[in-house]
Amino acid sequence: MRVEELLKKETATLRAAGIPSPRVDAEVLLGFVLGCDRLVLYWEPRREVAAGKATRFKELVARRAAGEPVAYLTGEKEFMGLSFSVTPAVLIPRPETELLVETAVTLLQGAAAPVVADVGTGSGAVAVSLAVLLPAARVFAVDISTAALAVARENACRHRVADRVVFYAGDLLEPFAGNEAVFDLIAANLPYIPSGEMGALPPEVRREPVLALDGGPDGLNFYRRLVPQAERLLKPGGHLLLEIGPGQGAAVSGLLPPPVWEGSVKPDLAGRDRLVVAQYRG
Question: Which major enzyme category is it (predicted)?
Fold first, then answer.
């Protein structure tokens, strides 16, 4: 069967299953099976697809139609222009989180040798991106999941920053207990979805680790615990960056009262609360 025929048929399968972007998902999956970029499919619509590959493609489409995320099917996700390995052990990197990385890079540009912590590193997308974009930085990445840390280490090696990203298994910043004023910046994309809203998440999101999504009754359990730790571990003038959900800006800002903190809320491209940026005044 030809590329154009396969895509037409399996796009219809995904559309009938209610998948939001059926054509794009079908293209990504066929490109994955054929080992090419999805754009190549536009250049070669009449290319014949071997029976074995066509069968494999249909199998992946069936799994996608059942709600399995594309990134878990391909094992890859792009973030900050870099390709990251992902597995069901980690949260899939989101475009919205690029705001956190971009803000961190802006704040740390010009710093001689910044020391950064990435709390809840998951796939390592934030930690690795920061190490790539800030060649002088030393990054300490923490996650409570050893399975997630294995993926993060793989990504650090993939992007050749394993010598500058140190991984710790632990709960929030507890691996650094006993230290004081060691970080120039602490970044955290922790679970912030209120427990009562977990059931309303799209089916494919519910395939991701609950540990990386559920933030407790109001979504702020982890940030309440993190802020006191950050006060001890940030250098005076250092920054704390917290990714948040829409509408959480005021509540999270309330955890960072002046004069100890000076903060603001940055919106994402859709104009929704997305990032709290707070400077530690000491």
Answer: transferase
Could you report the per-residue pLDDT of 3-62, keeping only the tens digit for each? 999 999 999 999 999 999 999 999 999 999 999 988 889 888 889 999 999 999 999 999
Q: Is 215 one of the annotated binding-site residues?
A: no
Six token digits for residue 60: 């992946």
Q: Is 124 annotated as a binding residue?
A: yes
Is residue 122 annotated as involved in ligand binding?
Answer: yes
273 among the known binding-site residues? no
Render pLDDT for 217-265 as a digit per residue (tens, 0 to 9).
999 999 999 999 999 999 999 999 999 999 999 999 999 999 999 999 9
pTM above 0.90, yes or no: yes
CA distances from 24 to 64, 87, 175 (A): 12, 21, 42
pLDDT at 212: 96
Are 93 and 85 in contact by the 8 Å Cβ rule? The answer is no
For 68-127, give the DSSP string. --HHHHHTEEEETTEEEE--TTSPPP-GGGHHHHHHHHHHHTT-SS-EEEEES-TTSHHH
196 annotated as belonging to a binding site for a ligand = no
CATH topology of domain 80-280: Rossmann fold (3.40.50)
Q: What is the CA radius of gyration of the chain?
A: 21
What whole-number distance in Å separates Cα of residue 231 and Cα of residue 219? 21
Q: Tell me: is residue 189 an annotated ligand-binding position.
A: yes
Say how far residue 117 (Cα) sits from the centre of its chain: 15
Among residues 30, 25, 52, which one has the least CA distance to residue 40? 30
